[in-house]
Amino acid sequence: MTLGMSIATFTVVHVVISLIAIGAGVVACARMLKGRRLDSWNSVFLLFTVLTTVTGFLFPINVFTPAIGVGIVSSVALAIALVALHVGRLAGAWRWIYVASALFAFYLNVFVLVVQSFQKIGILNRFAPTGSEPPFAVAQGIVLLGFILLGFLALRRFRPN
User: Which ranges does the record mark as transmembrane (predicted)?
Assistant: First the structure.
């Protein structure tokens, strides 16, 4: 039991939260690429990304796992993004610090989505049952390159003032 829910129910809640975070992240990033000001989509992205990270820590795991490591790194990235947004108000260097840390947190969510997809979706699992096969590496490489490009473009285009 976690938060009064069975592990199965809690897992579904965690996955739904994660998918909302990813969907909102897509919209928030699209707005950054267009140079638009941050709005409620960005707030939804940050809130649900924080919730994804927090709920990930609530699973009954007694040993350090890669998922815990990703959660710790995501927590640091989100803390930096929130400081850049609410303390630094995206002024000066805080703008690029926000873009880099928020996109990195978003990347980690998508990274985990790819990992979980290869583990849980039958057709993908057949191509990479252990997660160390070339199809998995290619998928993660494409995601990484996509986020590097996204980060480069967002840093150039996003001017919230």
Answer: 6-29, 41-61, 67-85, 97-116, 136-155
